[in-house]
Amino acid sequence: MSDPVISVIIPVRPDEAALPALLSQLEGHRAICDIHVMGEGSRAKSLNAGAKKARGTLLWFLHADSVLTDDSIDHLLAGFAKSPKSLLYFDLAFARDAVGLVKLNQWGANLRSRLLGVPFGDQGLACHRDIFKAVGPYDEHCAYGEDHLFVWQARQGGVKLFPIGAPLLTSARTYRQTGWLKLTILYQYRWIRQALPEAWKLMRRRGL
After folding, report:
1. Is pLDDT larger for residue 132 or for residue 95?
2. Confidence of residue 1 (pLDDT cuts 50, 70, 90)
3. Among 65, 68, 98, 179, which is least packed by CB within 10 angstroms?
4. CATH number of 87's domain
């Protein structure tokens, strides 16, 4: 049996209710995908453990509450064909459960990704397995934002980012549960706090 093209790596918590829906969407693509659902105690450990088990050329890191469109995998493969040495990412789009001001977060995330080169894990990060070996693994010691830090690791390692230009849907349930304003402020504080020292490292590597 030949190796799959894509290895899908999904970190999960014990109470992850959204997982069955994502697995159902992936089921029809098993001819080209192997799927690794990993619960290793932390998201970073789960992502790294999945990457070690992966047999595919392209590693695709998905959140359990991601929702695929009918052509998500086609868009992923097309992006990989265009830029196989890049770290690929989708545009963020919230699923139907998004209401009110959450759409502003969607717009802001996509603007941040394109202008600042900082996509997050809910945008379906993907890369060649050799690139992951070169710039990984995910930081297992950080308290949060391991996907954000991985993007910086890639950039500091000379890996370019490639926007696939297609949406990947994600649930807005955490905004409903926590509250839009509280969660938005928390997320902005956390990513900026992480980004500033990483941006400084990148500037020094480039001699700026």
Report:
1. 132
2. very low
3. 179
4. 3.90.550.10
